[in-house]
Amino acid sequence: MLSKTIADIEVRIGELRSEIAQHPLSLELAILLEALDKLRSIPAASEAMELRTPVRAPESERLTLLEAAERAVEEAGYPLQTRELIIQVPRFGVTVGGSSPMKNLSSILSKRSRRLQSIRWNGGSGWWLKGQPLPRAHAA
Predict the structure, then answer these.
(1) pTM (2 decimals)?
(2) Could you tell me which of 62, 69, 70, 77 has the fewest CB atoms within 10 Å of its CB?
């Protein structure tokens, strides 16, 4: 009985591998992985890729999501859109979860942040430090 179950599972795995191998995304993935391996074998490319890899803060230095968003805005020196904050906060050891990260982060900042406020900025909206004048260099 057990050997039949194992054989059935192995057959199904083989079928799935065949189906997946025929999918267009499977081919694209194989091409991209091969290209990445080749690029990594080039010394200059390896060094450049390491420089672009985001550095995460050690566990003991990680901030809360609110602190990370506030720090990102402070370091930028100008208002950041929600999508920009989602890109920036992982540098501080946090990420925005859920199926709609932009909505989640916007909601969290709107309801909980005592230091950031949503403002009109360059024809859209952004998050800026409450009570701080807008920088002139980036003003709309």
Answers:
(1) 0.55
(2) 77
